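idk why but the lab printer keeps eating my pages so im just putting this in chat instead. protein + FE2/S2 (inorganic) cluster:
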Amino acid sequence: MEIAKILGEFHGLQKDLIHILHRVQAQFGYIPPEAVAQIAECLKISENEIFGVLTFYKAFSLEPRGQYLVTVCLGTACHVRGGVQIVEEMERKLQVKAGQTTPDKKFTLETVNCLGCCAIGPVVVVNGKYYSHVTLNKVEPIIKEYREAG
Ligand code: FES
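predcted complex ->
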């Protein structure tokens, strides 16, 4: 029902696909499979085309994400400054692998290839808040900040 409402805000034009996906993601926190089918029907494109877009853009998720999305940059500049170790430390502290969500649905850990601010790497982003020059001993305080935020 909600998806139909979102589709109603647009005019069934294929050029609106990304906008529609952003609206669905904002509404549900992810793109539910039934939304893909409805969007495909409305825009008269194949579901495969939509899945192609969804896998290309990291902003979209096909699974429900946690309350806090922790993104660790693994682009070249961040990688050479220890990005991999930051991811491993995050995995240890959160007890999930990159790409997974904690059982309490509080954190989702993801990696990304360059956030466009290489000079301040390694970079971690939590729900849009950037942390620069992240070192191993900054990982725990970052997570603690959100654990305690409720
Ligand atoms: S490589 Fe991390 S911001 Fe560019």
